[in-house]
TrEMBL record:
InterPro entries: TPR-like_helical_dom_sf (IPR011990). Residues 171-186 have a biased composition (Basic and acidic residues). Residues 158-186, 198-218 are annotated as: Disordered. Gene3D superfamilies: Tetratricopeptide repeat domain (1.25.40.10). This is Uncharacterized protein. It comes from the Bacteria.
Length: 218
């Protein structure tokens, strides 16, 4: 089962509607149109320019959120995760927006984990992703995608790999292995000699008298 990595997007604003006709409203509407058209580089420039213009708080949050979304779409997962986390911590945003930001931060971290070739780093990223999904569910307990991704990440998290053995420990391990092999060989040889002796004592030469059994119950 694959993690649902589709990032949620704020079309304009989820928590309050800016005044139509305002410059900030027109600029974020234009940036969103660039995003939907798939012209992500232009959308990034539009969102960054809008954020730098000190827009009203609600527009600023939406611009930051959607800039993070656009970075996510360009596989800039680290930058996206950072911006989503900032959006999630905005106290002026409503719970739905913050829940979506936590969810998207979790997706960005999970995407980073999927690209990592280092087991420890993958483990750390998945743990961080799990924390973001749980924060999202605290704000929106009915979010199905967050529930699904939480379950998938829990299944994928593995304990970090053990530290590599030191040279001394490795030598001791090799020595112990050699000792065990030698002991095993001696035991097998001893058993083999005992079997030969047993066969010799219980063997009946042709025409000769049978030797007494070593054990009367045989």
């Amino acid at each position: 089962m694959r993690i649902i990595l589709t990032a949620l997007f704020i079309p304009v604003l989820l928590f309050s509607r800016p005044q139509r006709g305002s410059d900030a409203y027109d600029r974020i509407k234009n940036a969103n149109a660039l995003y939907r058209a798939g012209t992500y580089d232009q959308a990034i420039d539009a969102y960054e320019g809008l954020s730098a213009s000190s827009p009203p708080a609600d527009i600023a949050i939406a611009a930051r959120f959607n800039l993070a979304n656009t970075l996510y779409m360009t596989a800039s997962f680290r930058e996206a995760a950072s911006l989503f986390s900032r959006a999630a911590e905005e106290k002026s945003a409503d719970e739905e927006t913050r829940a979506a930001a936590f969810f998207n931060a979790g997706n960005a971290l999970a995407a980073m984990a999927g690209r990592s070739t280092d087991r420890k780093q993958t483990h750390t990223l998945l743990r961080s992703s799990l924390m973001q999904y749980r924060q999202s569910l605290l704000l929106n307990p009915n979010a199905l995608d967050a529930k699904i991704n939480t379950e998938i990440v829990l299944r994928r998290i593995q304990p970090p790999p053990p530290a590599s053995l030191s040279s001394t420990t490795k030598k001791n391990s090799d020595r112990q292995s050699k000792i065990s092999s030698a002991m095993k060989e001696r035991v097998l040889n001893s058993v083999h000699l005992e079997e030969k002796a047993l066969l010799k004592r219980s063997y009946h030469p042709p025409g000769g008298k049978a030797q007494k059994s070593l054990n009367k119950n045989w």
